Amino acid sequence: MSMHSGRERLVVIGGDAAGMSAASQARRLRGPDELEIVAFERGHFTSYSACGIPYWVGGDVDERDQLVARSPEEHRARAIDLRMRTEVTEIDVAGKRVRARDVDSGAESWTPYDRLVIGTGARPVRPDMPGADAPGVHGVQTLDDGQALLDTLARTGGRRAVVVGAGYIGVEMAEALINRGYQVTVVNRGSEPMSTLDPDMGRLVHEAMEGLGITMVNDTEVTKVLTGQDGRVRAVATEAAEYPADVVILGIGVRPETGLARAAGLPVGRHGGLLTDLAMRVRGHVDIWAGGDCVEVLNLVSGQEQYIPLGTHANKHGQVIGTNVGGGYATFPGVVGTAVSKVCDLEIARTGLREKDALRVGLQFETVTIESTSRAGYYPGANPMTVKMLAERRTGRLLGVQIVGREGAGKRVDIAAVALTANMTVEQMTALDLGYAPPFSPVWDPVLVAARKAATKVRDAR
Asked: Per the structure, how many domains does the chain have?
């Protein structure tokens, strides 16, 4: 027990998915008389869906507030002392306290803790080049960022947008801007968009994006952002060319926001994220937990730590942390690396390892790629889809699946995510009893067609 008033104090840094899930779950288990909870958030919003920002910008979601799961007032009503627009600037591990600064007034103060939760999230990678901070250049990590971008779009006369990067954020923002009637150019340093896929599957995304009227520029680095007389962005430049732009979106990924934690001497991994144990406790520290986009997670397929910033993991981390802080017991075993995305009507899905991931960890594998349809071929609305599958050589263990197709393709990856988690072989998968009727799938689901072909290939390779 601590010195202050006989009850424990939990301090939470970061008011989004991981931090506030942890606070809410701890509060469910322990009342205000047992556990005081103080949370700090440097922005204007709490518990929001960053994943929804591209759909709000694109007009699929009307109101910003629809993306807020729980407002500051709702958190405060549950006896969580939530301090908005307040940035934690230092963690004093030895003294068990944090220093926080009011963003508007600049006033600083120290707050002691018994237990600390770090949910500082991620920050967009800003390229180190001239003009990267010019007005009209936007990252889209927080609701504040989304609002700033919409304000820019409302003020900007021209309709030319350049998106730098072609990962999830890049392709989703390209769609959002196409929906708003912009001419969109995507500049990508990889050979194909979506580097989370193998290049042969990324190629399908590339072709589909060009089919939607998006200009794809691959194998190209942006070297500077050019500004006009008014100081606003007017173009982006590469070694070879200039692309005129009234607005520029940075979609080159995010890094864990671990500056505070590093300065406090907490352990970070090779991807820059905090390292935790299975209970989401920061390694080597009994009273500090961390979750969400600032931590590394165990990939169950490769057996190695990985950095995968996703809202699904953040919410699970928060649940686990809150349970443990609240006196219960929970663990987060790891992930298999599942993600889905879309650009207009093209659905993109992946789980498990890519070819290069498998090679890097020393796994040998067979790959198969099949084409099928989302429904029975004769049923109206049957859409083509391509499924690629990796199976371990000799054992036939499923290692990864990638799917690119039209409506009905993306969520099929969940079948593979379950199979990976259960350590199934492709042979075992062929016997899975999946739901079938012509409106839902062909008699052989596309994932099972791939599994059957992979099983044959593994057998023949022995």
From this structure: 3
Q: Which two tokens stand for residue 243?
A: 């692309």
Residues 268 and 352 in one domain: no
Strands 384-392 and 365-373: antiparallel
Please give the sequence-ordered ranges of beta strands (E in DSSP) within 314-373, or none if there are none. 339-343, 346-352, 365-373
Any catalytic annotation for residue 51? yes
Question: What's the pLDDT at 2?
Answer: 47
Cβ proximity of 56 and 146 under 8 Å: yes
Residues belonging to the chain: 462
Domain identity same for 114 and 262: yes
Cut 0.70: pTM above it: yes
pLDDT tens for 209-257 read 999 999 999 999 999 999 999 999 999 999 999 999 999 999 998 999 9
Report helix angle 311-325 to 17-29, nearest 10.
30
pLDDT, tens only, 19-28: 999 999 999 9
Residue type, 212: L
Exposure string of 323-338, with b = 16+ CB inside 10 Å and e = fewer, is bbbbeeebebebbbbb
Give the C-alpha separation, 451 to 131, whole Å: 49
Q: Of residues 7, 29, 49, 51, which has the active-site annotation?
A: 51
- For residues 238 and 115, give the distance between their C-alpha atoms in angstroms, rounded to a whole number: 48
- Give the residue numbers spanning the domain of 287: 8-123+255-325
| Per-residue model confidence (pLDDT) at position 420 | 98
